[in-house]
Amino acid sequence: EKSGYEHFMIKEIHEQPKAVRDTINAYVKDGQIDLSETGLTDDFLKSLDQLYIVACGSAYHVGVAARYVIEDLTSIHIEVDLASEFRYRNLKLRDHSLVIIISQSGETADSLAALRLAKDKGVPTLAIVNVIGSTIAREADHVMYTLAGPEIAVATTKAYSTQLIATYLFAVEAARARGEITQEKADEMVTEMQTLPEKIERVLNDKDRIQWFAAKFANAKDMFFIGRGLDYAISLEGSLKMKEISYIHSEAYAAGELKHGTISLIEKGTLVVGVMTQSKLFEKTRSNMVEVGSRGGYLMGLTTYGNYSIEDTVNFTVYVPKTDEHFMTSLAVIPLQLLGYYVSCAKGLDVDKPRNLAKSVTVE
Length: 364
Ligand code: M6R
Fold this sequence. Notes:
Its main location: cytoplasm. The chain is of the alpha/beta class. It has 14 helices and twelve strands. It has helices at about 10-15, 15-25, 40-45, 55-75, 85, 110-120, 135-140, 160-175, 185-195, 195-205, 205-215, 230-245, 280-295, 330-345, and strands at about 30, 30-35, 50-55, 75-80, 95-105, 125-130, 140-145, 220-225, 250-255, 270-275, 300-305, 315-320. The model has no long low-confidence stretch (mean pLDDT about 95).
């Protein structure tokens, strides 16, 4: 079933162009977003004042990315929370709200409990779920399915990528329905979204370089992933991929926070990955990279083709194609998935079934 691949994880990494394409195609008709299957109407999207996005693990990282995207395109207020925290807060859910639960399995105990809590409080719910007929899908008022297909590796890759797409579709459609972007702008963004599968393919073609780079860090003790804005959301996911399958301690930091404590951990040779895909934040994060570099950090820069000046600052660069900057997570996460994967392989670990972890976390 691994179709010639060594592990399910690398097979699923390669299935991302298709998974992304299938998810877009499920909700785009004649070049325009159509969410009618989910029951989310224009009137409902117009009425929204507040979103609560609730999830665990990588699905939570999708929520962190989605907040930047939805916030930038619409006037809706957004809170993102871990399901295991959301449940125990004494949160006053506001009127005109929607609770969005993101879950690959649709069975995660804390995410399910958060969904039930929202329903008890009378707040409408939308589930972004991969497994058809799962408990979260059955109980939510509205469901948007991701079309990743079955995901076997414990470390999520293609489900994460399709969840991102679901949030882009929601963001663009909400903005259009509310009159916050024009139909033309929405159409243009859909056209750009449709180029993502081919661009992901191009990033995958670079995998040998990342494999070569990864092999040097098999004995690393610590790693850091830094970025601002959407690049911070990407860092969170890159760092989780690394720690869960390679057992290397890693942390994601909002680049501006480094100076408030963490920079003291940088020693000679510590790998620091700087994610710099957002043009208005590029120079800010670059100066943070200079700071860690001067403390001995070994620097990998992740940015878009064209930003070649980064080579003056970092030791190793990975470029990804340009796209609408709202969609950048979809491209920039790929090299980070590959980095985690190849470090794990270089250490000879059980990539698909990392110790102490389960694919679906049905206990609290
Ligand atoms: O099935 P879910 O999407 O609800 O699972 C949530 C997390 O357990 C999951 O994303 C986990 O963090 C992954 N193993 C990360 O690769």
